[in-house]
Specification:
This protein is α/β, with parallel strands linked by helices. It contains 13 helices and 28 strands. The structure holds adenosine-5'-triphosphate (ATP) and magnesium ion (MG).
Length: 559
């Protein structure tokens, strides 16, 4: 696949204009700021591609910053997963990995500075009172009775908050802006709260933690970010972002730009919900191949190229929308069609015996590794009297258009002989077909004599050295396209009960016996498969179906 360059969009237009006017000199500095309280998902991947992609395109920089100012739920395990996943996506931050928690001291100083400017105060209202005083969209707020505390008193109380003299929730530090502002975020927002909770990096050093709105913009400024790209839900917070920066920063101001969050059909992209799926064991973990996480998609067998391509295709919008998951699958299929070697795999095997093929005889059949790419070479597959085909490649009473085996029919075995139906056996109790007998025609190996036609071509694996394996088939995680918007409290009831099907009696060709975990193949006529990164072992491979062969995106796109 060719390298993907995203088309221009409104963010790149802003940057072009800024470079023209010299608003930030000739610098372009972005950042990706995940909170390490979960694994990153395809929505984060979009933001990663956007921020790192812009830095690459404009020869700027993109920092990776752990936005870890709220100890609740944050952990090193998540930091490690985020680092690993962004690397795997193909991006590099050089030595620019930062932690907002490294700025705790600096942020404290910024808060002290605000107090000294008379622009912050310690408020001792209860959380309920603060909410009540805040007013609403239609009503202005009311000043807190603590709003006019002296600078000295505020400095003293804030220092004592830090020193741990007060119980959680007893006081907060608030910016002193305007309780009548039409922007509710500007009504004296809280900037520090007391919270006795150990932080995964700073331990028990701090009992006060800065709020997101305060920490985020000042962390951006600290890192000399020029364009702080975030999702639309922060649009209302932009005046506050600018206010803090205006009061405290005397160098180049970072500029917040919002874009629409990515939503993908048949899944959820809220960390809270993903955590619920993991903790409730509704999936096998963050890297369950059904999860929309980067780790899940990697384990499923998606390629980083395909994910980057998808992110470039969907572009950047100003309005929320729901992207069809079929587009993501289309990008994966498109990439794999090009890159995945072909192999023979039978996911629901039916045994076949060639009555007129000599017992004990074997032959080697040459099979191309990629039909369109002779440079990928070929391999030899063993052919013998007994082999397996896909159960649905035989029907006792096939309809006219059926292109496979049935009574009175002939098919070609791919890269081998033409075989003709002779008889079949059935289980007396279940009625299931248990074995098929055919005859072969030795003259058909290289091609067909003039004028002779067969129904179709099917794939096969010789019984002689077939490798038994497990195959896991995945379907949509949720039953409906937009579970996040569903009118139900119980989003778990919308989970697709058939999202995972495990087939334990599958068969692959001999060469895949010791397949490396993570290796991807097209099993001819069946789909794309990836040897599972965790469970596949030499001798006992386990394959995940990445995507079936049939592309539903083309069809949707022309509608
Ligand atoms: P939550 O899922 O609880 O809303 P979050 O997704 O915002 O949390 P963060 O770790 O704060 O989690 O996100 C890091 C960055 O990724 C932010 O800049 C955020 O705007 C961006 N981001 C998160 N979700 C999406 C999404 N669905 N589409 C695009 N960008 C996203
Ligand atoms: Mg967030």
């Amino acid at each position: 696949m060719e390298p993907v360059h995203a088309a221009s969009d409104f963010i790149r237009e802003i940057i072009d204009e800024d470079l023209r006017t010299g608003r930030h000199g000739d610098r372009v500095a972005t950042r990706f700021p995940p909170e390490p309280n979960g694994y990153i998902h395809i929505g984060h991947a979009k933001s990663v591609c956007l921020n790192f992609g812009i830095a690459q395109q404009y020869e700027g920089t993109c920092n990776l910053r752990m936005d870890d100012t709220d100890p609740a739920g944050e952990s090193l395990k998540y930091v490690e997963s985020i680092i690993n996943d962004i690397r795997w996506l193909g991006f590099d931050w050089g030595d620019r990995l930062f932690y907002a928690s490294d700025y705790f001291e600096r942020l404290y100083e910024f808060a002290v500075e605000l107090i000294k400017q008379g622009k912050a105060y310690v408020c001792s209202l209860t959380p309920d009172e603060i909410r009540e005083y805040r007013g609403s969209f239609t009503e202005p707020g009311k000043d807190s009775p603590y709003r006019n505390r002296s600078i000295e008193e505020n400095l003293d109380l804030f220092a004592r908050m830090r020193a741990g003299e007060f119980a959680d929730g007893k006081h907060v530090l608030r910016a002193k802006i305007d309780m009548a502002s039409p922007f509710i975020v500007m009504r004296d927002p809280i900037i520090y709260r007391i919270k006795r909770e150990p932080h995964y990096r700073t331990g028990n050093k701090w009992v006060i933690y800065p709020m997101y709105d305060f920490a985020h913009c000042l962390s951006d400024a600290q890192e000399h970010i020029t364009h702080s790209i975030c999702t639309l839900e922060f649009e209302n917070n932009r005046p506050l972002y600018d206010w803090f920066v205006d009061q405290l920063i005397d160098w180049d101001h970072p500029q917040q730009i919002e874009f629409a969050r990515l939503n993908v059909s048949y899944t959820v992209l809220s960390k809270r919900r993903l955590i619920e799926l993991v903790e409730g064991k509704h999936v096998a973990g963050w890297d369950d191949p059904r999860m929309p996480t980067v780790a899940g998609m990697r384990r499923r067998g998606y390629t980083p190229e395909a994910i980057r391509r998808f992110c470039a295709e969907i572009g950047v919008a100003k309005k929320d929308n729901l992207v069809d998951i079929a587009l993501l699958e289309h990008c994966v299929r498109d990439d794999l069609n090009d890159t995945a070697p072909r192999a023979m795999g039978i996911i629901r095997p039916l045994k076949v015996v060639i009555d007129n093929y000599p017992m004990g005889k074997t032959e080697e059949m040459s099979c191309p590794n990629h039909p369109q790419k002779p440079e990928l070479g070929s391999r030899k597959l063993l052919f013998s009297r007994e082999f397996y085909i896909e159960r649905d490649d035989f029907m006792e009473e096939p309809p006219k258009k059926y292109k496979r085996l049935g009574p009175g029919r002939e098919v070609r075995l791919r890269n081998a002989y033409v075989v003709k139906y002779e008889s079949h056996m059935k289980d007396a109790v279940t009625g299931e077909v248990t074995e098929l007998h055919v005859s072969y025609d030795p003259v058909t190996l290289g091609g067909l004599p003039e004028g002779r036609k067969v129904e179709g071509v099917i794939h096969w694996v010789a019984a002689h050295n077939a490798v038994p394996c497990e195959v896991r088939l995945y379907d949509r995680l949720f039953l409906i396209p937009d579970p996040a918007a569903a009118d139900t409290e119980d989003f778990l009831s919308l989970l697709n009960p058939d999202s995972l099907e495990v087939l334990s009696d599958c068969i692959v060709e001999a060469g895949l016996r010791d397949v490396a975990p993570g290796a991807r193949y097209q099993f001819e006529r069946v789909g794309y498969f990836c040897a599972d990164l965790k469970d596949s072992r030499a001798g006992t491979p386990v394959f995940n179906r990445i995507v079936p062969l049939r592309d539903t995106w083309g069809k949707l796109a022309v509608k």
